[in-house]
Design brief:
Chain lengths: 398, 319
């Protein structure tokens, strides 16, 4: 019995190995046709973040459809290949392996999650496949200085300092109580906030953590109630943040509340209800329909997909724009022949003053967007998205 | 110190509310352990299912327009009743499918089975809510919005008062049922010795089913109370709370019903007071994030000094 089953396993393994070989053969075949250029988008298309991932994919698709003729004019066929990383680092790495194996892929829009982008980018970098991320905000994404890694949104480490300036200068607070959720993201932002606050003379009356996944924050809020700070800054994500807002109002704590882009979510209003009114959050993404170009873009999006774009759709769109412009200039520099991946990386990194939907994009030496902006929004009524009250250039806080 | 005294009353009260929820959930762990010596790790998911059932009931009443016109306590009772029926039935069903076939197996086997049931329920609820509502974070409608200000430093929202009262009523009812009724006697008998009670013409399978129904039903009610108190639920909400409630059951002495009640309330109060006072005691060096460390250090101390838990031995009638 045992021997039989182990034979079966060996047989299955051999079959699986052969299958990979066959797939491998298939791939070498396509890459030998030199004139096909493929661009991938990788975002979570299934799982809990599927909605955002789909927004990004649709944005990238839209830019691709609008601009692919520019590359086709140069005598190439272009293809768009959306991939799913499930917001899971293991899946991201698997997709990355697949993409670098197919030589016709020249660039990738993605990933959305910093935790997925970092390990995946190590794979891309092995074969110089250039990625332009629409939404990874962790500093480490670009601080590793990989030549193939770029992003067009702002970084986390500007949100904290900017929040501190806003709380002191715009909200007129003298004391602030900082709460974080003990995650890399939440605590990281909270610490940056604290550092800046101490530097500019904003008194930090407390710096305490809560546990993500819990629902009762009365312990820490009782302390906030006794300290009575002018403002509370929360480093974390909306489920806990919204409950904090709600429980603060139940406890009669009148301090102003502010959080980072983890609070940029429609659920805030559902969970906190009217208590959300008068709270602030900062975010690298904002309602794109504030400007006339933005409005036009939104109506184009609606006409194409018959749905509203998400906040990150425009970033997917801009990432694809950067890539297409980059590939175009790489082709031109290469004398009209198919450029290598290294040439594409160099061309994309050289992006300067490119008019995008979200900002004017200039990539610096590390691959961060110098033109990236942060937006501070206030819930003027219990409705999402909140009203943008301030727009700040991220490079001022580097 | 002055600051500590100032926030102490409110912390005690908040701890009491959270502790009541822990206590009612802990009852489910302790009852099942009493009769089967099985730690039913899926109980935290029973709690979660109850929270969803109760919340969906309230949301249904709200969307049908009845919620505004009916008195809030009636709506709450309806939600509690439906949550109790659904969770209780689920508990019985779970016992039938996942535990009864394994009753004579080594103890670790049903434990693994319980973990499997737990994963299954989490993702089943996520799937159902995802398909139905396209979101699996639910926000329960607010039933009681008023707040009683007892003093300047002490505020008691009415919804929290409701949690305390409901939990006390449920625990008293369970205590009376187990100590006074014939079925309660049967449960105690099975807890003491399953084989002998079978010889005394007690239908052991029925009694075990009843125990699961009661434990799971209470868990479901606790879920609904939790949803009305903290308003936000998701399919994974049972995880941390389940661990805390299990801890409470161990603290009180697992297998003992009064032990679960005492353990739950004590753990809740320790956490709340810990969260508010650690920062003050250490002058800001350690913050509220150490509240669980504080609570668990006390748990370890109790278990070193009294391994059977606070009430583990005094109460001979373990259920």
């Amino acid at each position: 019995m045992l021997r039989k089953s182990s034979r079966l396993i060996v047989f299955t393994l051999i079959m699986a190995f052969m299958a990979t070989l066959l797939v491998g053969c298939g791939q070498t075949k396509t890459s030998s046709q030199g004139d096909v250029i493929k661009i991938a988008s990788v975002s979570p298309l299934s799982g809990s973040q599927a909605a955002i991932g789909d927004d990004i994919k649709l944005g990238a698709q839209m830019a691709f459809d609008e601009k692919k003729t520019e590359i086709e004019k140069l005598g190439f066929k272009v293809e768009f290949a959306p991939q799913d990383d499930q917001a899971d680092p293991k899946m991201g790495v698997t997709v990355a392996q697949k993409l670098i194996a197919d030589k016709s892929f020249l660039a990738v829009v993605g990933h959305f999650n910093s935790g997925v982008a970092i390990p995946s980018s190590e794979i891309y970098n092995k074969d110089n496949l250039c990625m332009v991320s629409p939404g990874t905000t962790n500093p480490d994404v670009t601080d590793r200085k990989l030549p193939s890694v770029n992003r067009i949104c702002a970084r986390d480490d500007v949100q904290g300092p900017m929040g501190a300036d806003f709380v002191m200068n715009d909200l007129g607070a003298k004391t602030v109580f900082v709460i974080h959720d003990k995650t890399t993201y939440g605590q990281g932002i909270a610490q940056e906030f604290q550092k800046r606050a101490e530097k500019i003379g904003l008194k930090v009356a407390g710096f305490e953590g809560i546990t993500a996944g819990e629902s009762d924050f009365s312990g820490v809020l009782n302390k906030v109630g006794s300290v009575k700070p002018d403002a509370v800054y929360f480093g974390g994500i909306y489920p806990e943040g919204s409950l904090l807002i709600r429980q603060m109002s139940e406890k009669g704590i009148k301090s102003k509340f502010m959080g980072p882009d983890g609070m940029d979510n429609a659920e805030v209003v559902n969970i906190a209800g009217d208590a959300a009114i008068g709270t602030f959050y900062s975010s690298p993404a904002a309602d794109i329909a504030r400007t006339q170009e933005g409005k036009d873009w939104v109506s184009r999006f609606q006409a194409k997909y018959n749905k509203e774009p998400g906040n990150w759709s425009a970033y997917g769109y801009d990432s694809m724009t950067v890539i297409i412009e980059g590939i175009k200039s790489a082709i031109e520099k290469n004398g009209g022949k198919q450029p290598s991946r290294v040439q594409v990386c160099e061309a994309i990194r050289a992006t300067k003053d490119l008019q995008g939907i979200t900002s004017v994009i200039t990539l610096d030496a590390k691959g961060d967007n110098m033109g990236a902006k942060l937006y501070i929004s206030e819930f003027k009524e219990a409705k999402y998205p909140a009203t943008v009250v301030k727009e700040i250039a991220a490079k001022d806080f580097k | 110190m002055e600051q500590f005294l100032q926030i102490l009353p409110q912390s005690l009260l908040d701890g009491l509310i959270l502790g009541m929820v822990y206590a009612v959930v802990a009852l489910g762990y302790t009852m099942v352990y009493g009769v089967l010596e099985l730690i039913n790790f899926a109980h935290s998911e029973i709690f979660m299912v109850g929270a969803f059932a109760g919340t969906e009931t309230l949301l249904f009443l709200q969307s049908a327009g009845y919620l505004a016109s009916m008195p809030a306590p009636v709506a709450l009772l309806m939600a509690l009743f439906i949550a109790m029926i659904i969770s209780g039935s689920l508990g019985v069903f779970m016992e039938r499918i996942a535990y009864r076939p394994l009753r004579e197996a080594p103890r670790l086997v049903p434990l693994i089975s319980a973990i499997g049931v737990s994963f299954f329920l989490q993702d089943a609820v996520r799937l159902i809510e995802g398909l139905w509502k396209n979101a699996f974070y639910l926000t329960a409608p607010s039933l009681f919005t008023a707040t009683i200000a007892i003093s300047a430093n002490l505020r008691l929202p009415v919804k929290s008062l409701v949690v305390i009262v409901s939990a006390v009523v449920m625990m008293l009812a369970l205590h009376l049922f187990v100590t006074r009724s014939k079925w309660g006697k049967a449960i105690r008998a099975v807890a003491q010795d399953r084989d002998t009670s079978a010889l005394m013409s007690i239908n052991v399978n029925q009694v075990i089913g009843l125990t699961f129904f009661l434990g799971a039903g209470l868990g479901g009610c606790a879920g609904t109370l939790f949803a009305t108190q903290y308003s936000l639920i998701n399919p994974y909400v049972g995880f941390i709370l389940g661990i805390k409630a299990f801890t409470a059951a161990v603290l009180g002495g697992i297998g003992s019903i009064p032990g679960a009640m005492v353990g739950g309330i004590l753990l809740g109060v320790l956490e709340a007071v810990g969260a508010a006072s650690i920062g003050i005691a250490t002058n800001g060096a350690m913050g509220a994030e150490y509240k669980d460390v504080f609570a668990f250090v006390i748990l370890i101390l109790v278990l070193i000094l009294k391994p059977s838990g606070l009430l583990g031995e005094e109460v001979r009638e373990k259920v």
